[in-house]
Design goal:
The protein has five helices and four strands, in the order H-H-H-E-H-E-E-H-E. With about 140 residues, the protein is of the alpha+beta class. The chain has a four-stranded antiparallel sheet with strand order 2-3-1-4, with no helix packed on it. The longest helix has 13 residues. This is HTH asnC-type domain-containing protein.
Length: about 140
Amino acid sequence: MSLPLDTTDRKILKLLQGNSRLSHKDIGLRVHRTGQAVGQRISRLQALGYIQKYTIQVQHEHTQFIRLMMQNNQFESFEQFINQQEQLTACYKTSGSACYMIITHFTETEFRFFIEQLSHWGHYSVDTVIKEIGTDAYPV
């Protein structure tokens, strides 16, 4: 991602973040370009790494943010455990007070079981989402 984005590139990225199923023609109408020109720009943005994948957004009933402070150096086994969990949205190795930030979508019963397993690696703190306010769109 070495080339700077122009205004049209930024508009295209913003539109795709809102709805990645928009056709090149629909995007073109909104950014005042032809569908073909939009397709070429999208291909370039993919080649440069600005667009890495197209996804869907699933509405979850429960969301938890878990900070894990490791009590041992078993990072590799912990990461293997994490990669087996289907209810995780993300897990980040972090600096600061926590070693990992984990975002999950467990029901209460599943969450209790997960936390019990998690305690083998260290202690944790949990924040549970009670209301979604913002967007998950990244700044362009």
